[in-house]
Amino acid sequence: MTPGTRKVAVVGAALADCGRVDDATPYTLHAQAARRALADAGLDRARVDGFASAGLGTLAPVEVAEYLGLRPTWVDSTSVGGSTWEVMAAHAADAIAVGHANAVLLVYGSTARADIRAGRRTGDLSFGARGPLQFEVPYGHTLIAKYAMAARRHMIEYGTTIEQLAQVAVQARANAALNPEAMFRDPVTVDEVAAGPLIADPFTKLHCCLRSDGGAAVLLAAEEYVRDCRTAPVWVLGTGEHVSHATMSEWPDFTVSPAAVSGALAFERAGVRPSEIDFAEIYDAFTYMTLVTLEDLGFCAKGEGGAFVEKGRLLVRGGDLPVNTDGGGLSAQHPGMRGLFLLVEAVRQLRGEAGERQVRTRDGLPPRLGVASGTGGWFCSSGTVVLGRE
């Protein structure tokens, strides 16, 4: 942070009910997550003067704030896909640091799975056909196909194999097995990933995230609020954000994600190196996202992601760099824009509250530094947040 400004901490973090939730509305899940995050922090709702939300309501976040009984004097409705919540956290931290807000609540909830089952909506094949996207839609270029094309480019450029990509799914499931809140916990093998139905070449079903219901909330507050909280603070050390492209034709290199920029900014501002990070929470709508983001955050060199992931490095138990410690979007939950879940899991890990899936340093203590990096669209945007405990 700039000298003379306030330090910012995450003081509350919680999930709403997740997985299969057939008897709730998205508003219910927003409220549930918000109440739990405030209870986690031990702060009264009246002290919240900032609010950030996206994806629900005609006037997001106005409708959600009203539903929660909040009247904030600082708001953010930035919507850049899955990276929304890391970008919002960056904005909130900046606002708190300079005194424009004192306590900012970030909240999300979705019944994406239940809505499809009830026939209230269909699956998303694309994001529409207006603006620049009109030049791609006639060719049947679906959302999943865009990720698949990028993965195939990496395979051609660097020799990355489908088995290496499958290892991401296998290790995510192994981490999910340690998480009682994960939607899928049974082990899977590389062969089982390969044998699944093809969704978009080269992705089979288990290369793709699940669809769930769920919600999450995070409360950020100024350093002087920390003494009034019941939880140990998790400090926001550095953030970065970046947007890359909207159409695939404007993406300079399919093998480089916007995390290459947002990550470098976050690490520089935090004053830490990737080698110092104890664990990473990475947006994983598809296995390739994890692999390429690991490269772009600097955990391995460009083109070496396949070799990096195939050796079990992502595992909570025995991994050099535990990644998506809750099981991620591939196995734990993925109710649409999952970026806020990354922050909740990172906070739990840094507090030492993750139960069986708790990451430990070599001295047996909870981790000291973690990173959450969200990706939006089809690698269109990225937000990265470096977090640490005292």
From TrEMBL:
<dbReference type="Pfam" id="PF22691">
    <property type="entry name" value="Thiolase_C_1"/>
</dbReference>
<dbReference type="InterPro" id="IPR002155">
    <property type="entry name" value="Thiolase"/>
</dbReference>
<feature type="domain" description="Thiolase C-terminal">
    <location>
        <begin position="240"/>
        <end position="389"/>
    </location>
</feature>
<dbReference type="InterPro" id="IPR055140">
    <property type="entry name" value="Thiolase_C_2"/>
</dbReference>
<protein>
    <submittedName>
        <fullName>Acetyl-CoA acetyltransferase</fullName>
    </submittedName>
</protein>
<dbReference type="InterPro" id="IPR016039">
    <property type="entry name" value="Thiolase-like"/>
</dbReference>
